[in-house]
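From the pipeline queue, job 12 of 40. The input is one protein chain; the requested action is below.

Action: predict structure.
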Amino acid sequence: MAATSTISGAHNRLVAELDEKEFDVVETQSFANEVASAIAKLKEKDVRIVLGNFNETWARSIFCEAHK
């Protein structure tokens, strides 16, 4: 549970800082296993930059799905 709250806290701080710097945060998402629908939502909103906190295996899966 502590790792999850640490990641969540880091995510919330990042979103707040981006907002302070006037970056347009279009969408925030978290998911545990199914990538396709999450990426579909990002594509619907024409998201061009993805910031993530994931390991190399997840990165491969996420960015391969985004590239489709």
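Job complete. Helices lie at 2-20, 36-44, 56-67.
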